[in-house]
Model the fold of this input.
Amino acid sequence: MIKILYIGDVVGQPGRRALHERLERVVDRERIDFTIVNVENAAGGFGVTEAIMEELSELPINAYTSGNHIWDKKDFVDNYEHYEHVVRPANYPAGNPGKGRVVRATAAGVKVAVLQLMGNVFMPPCDNPFHCADRELREITETKVIVVDIHGEASSEKQAMGRYLDGRVSAVLGTHTHVPTADERLLPNGTAYQTDVGMTGAYDSVIGFRPEEALHRFLLNTPKKLEVAKRDIRLSGAMVEVDETTGRASRIVRISEKLDD
Ligand SMILES: [Fe+2]
Done:
């Protein structure tokens, strides 16, 4: 049995602070074998940079996921070939840099595949994520331990993906909406599922940003630069236990660690 920790969207400096202050503690306490972190919002809420990847390299992280904001910082995208352990949605059109999946090993040598898909509902258009999942899973032959990040806005689409992949992957975990959902469960055929594992950042906010600017946009329908919020910082994610011989999950637990103010 191996334990996989999945940390949801890291939003700006407060999210990175949560990683630095709490990730190692959680990994030690829960005896985590493999850690995955979503970094698409790590640079001020939009994208990630090479400097941030360097900063995070000192932490016990095995693989990274991203999402629709992974393209926001040019320095990272231009050098994407250096970051094969940072996956981006597999269903972006062919020709984009990066890869939609990666296989990495735990310290004990257990291989874990990480695959990311992006929803099509209320999201930038991409290939059909369900058909893309079929194609990608056919290519993963090295291991039965497979974690899928479904990055999407609509809970219905994420739940449908969980059901579609139930019994074919170890976990289907949602990101992008930044709000942890209380629906973590084992699906009937052994796949762990949660609609959104929650963001790692400031929860006194509108999805990690100061309410003032977010409200300006909603009240006036005119642009206003969003500022990352700073209060009520939490590390948020899910911990999944998986039998490495079958790939079936036996347990999923929500993780929420509040930092001291
Ligand atoms: Fe996103």
The radius of gyration is 17 Å. The chain has a mean pLDDT of 97.
